[in-house]
Write a structure and sequence with these properties.
The structure holds two protein chains of two kinds. Chain A is an alpha+beta fold. Chain A is built from eight helices and 20 strands. Classes of the chains: A alpha+beta, B mainly alpha.
Chain lengths: 361, 300
Amino acid sequence: MNVLELKDVTKKYGSFTAVENVSLELEPGKVLSLLGPSGCGKTTTLRIIAGFAVPDGGTVQIAGEDVGQLKPYERNVGLLFQDYALFPHMTVAQNVAYGMRYRGAPAAAIPSRIKQMLSLVQLGGMEARYPNQLSGGQQQRVALARALATDPKVVLLDEPLSALDAKLRLELRIELKEILRSVGATTIVVTHDQEEALSLGDEVVIMHAGGIVQRGAPTQIYQSPANKFVAEFVGRSNWFQVIRSGQSVAGFTSYITSDGVEIRAKSPPSGYNGGSDLCVRPEHIELIDSAAPEALRGAEHNSMTGVVLDVASLGPDVHVVVELPGKARVLAIRKNAGRIQGLAPGQCVRAVFSAADVLVF
Amino acid sequence: MLSTKERLNAEVTVRTKALVSAKPILSKRRVDSLLTVAVTAIIAVTALFLLFPVVVTVLMAFDARDYIGPFPPTELSTRWFGKLLEDTYIWAGFKTSLLLAAATTAAAAAIGALAALAISWMSPRWRDFVTTMFLSPLVLPGVIIGFGLLMFFAAFNQVPVFLKLFAGHLIITLPFTIRMTLVGLAGISQTLREAALSLGANERQVFFTITLPLAKNGIAAGAIFAFATSMDDVAVSLFMSDFQTYTLPLALTTLIKSSFDLTIAAAAVALMGLTIVLLIVLDRVLGLERAMGHGTNRIR
């Protein structure tokens, strides 16, 4: 049975429709990421589930109970706020105990539960500290312990890692995942950060303009985006605008782009009307010596010479910007291995990518 | 693509800077140091100016001469303090003032806190309007408030003088308590309230466990201002008092007009001492709180 079920939920603020006909269901113990740009309706969805906003239409069910009209304190939903929202005038222990107190936990059971929760988030011995005496990472763990202490039916995480610095983020992401899994929390992560969404969620829901655009496993979202918006929003991509399509051979079609470049890709979807966009992920573009024989020529490959404009070495990855004929620029991301090191701006290279890796919209 | 642009930008910036620094202005540094000296001097003069009346009053209170002679005193004694202790007129005013300030502070703090809370719940447009209304006594001259109240109370017969004083002082102290509580409430993040609600506390419980404790410092600061204002007021009290019930500032102004001795300076010094003690006590109470919660309103 689904722990959480949203059916055709709509919320309007005046003439602005924040969320329209959103339907979601979540199985117990699963982590679902709601990903989208700001204003896409993900935060409104979160606030509707938490009870801070009342939907104008549709139903919200938690564990089979219709909670759409219930106050936040009448439903058992755990919330982790972006700024943690720890009570500054209470100790760590008092913060964690707060929810238990008002959810009617027996007073005798509270101390042992505090201890259990704090050891879960590895903050044993910090009971008497005040929030301002903790680091950002520790504050977040206290907030998590506080949210989980009441054993909520659904846990909502609002941009859980965005307030932390990059290094700590990675550490805490892994830890957060482990903790959520160990308590079997049914979780919704709301974020605009794709890395956060893709890494935390068993499944990812992409939202745009108040509606759900695509739902799928993280790899599925990245590899086969449902539309141009998803492809553009998740990951980096190179875009080509098609002005006309040429001949088709063995399921692949030649497209002429607005830059005058010919790119082979999968044949257009049915109902194709002449104009479309092609998308190539930067890591799919191979850069080889321009003098090398064109071994990869064929209907299923693209190969074109270009000039290196910029090489930026970013640790494990090297970002190379190549200008193709017709002034089209593409970004190629290569691993920082030995053979790329010779690349320098001004150099002629051959950009090669498989026609199968080109996404057609 | 982007990085090329950034690189170009960086180069342009460097070149622009080179152009600017090619024409050095010698006096720039000197102007800076002159300004620093000037600002320091202004601060010093202002501080002296502020402290001068206090220093004069304290020294004159210990003047041994039995008339108000020119500053500085030629001889020192504590005779005026002795006279102050025996002066029933000043003592009666002091007692009324203290009682009045205490009652006013308590009422203003309570009413101000509740009013501020209600204002903080209003929609922005109403919030500004109502806040301005409540804070208007700050810009209204006390004489006008006093006169208006006098006319108002004239409509009733036999209103106790203390009650009239209390009403007048409430009007002039409420802006402080409302203002300071509003500042305190503004520092409480909305997510704290929502966090408490999501943890199962209802609105009333959230108010008593989160909002009130966090707004406490603001309310206390407003109360201090209210107390000080009430103790100090002359203009409004002048219209509300009679020959039997009068406040300390009124007693002092009457004295300075009728008799030429320095009991008034001694009274001022005693009042200063009382204020300092009061502030130290309040700082201890609030200061301890601050050390525990560090600003109490926000985590960082």
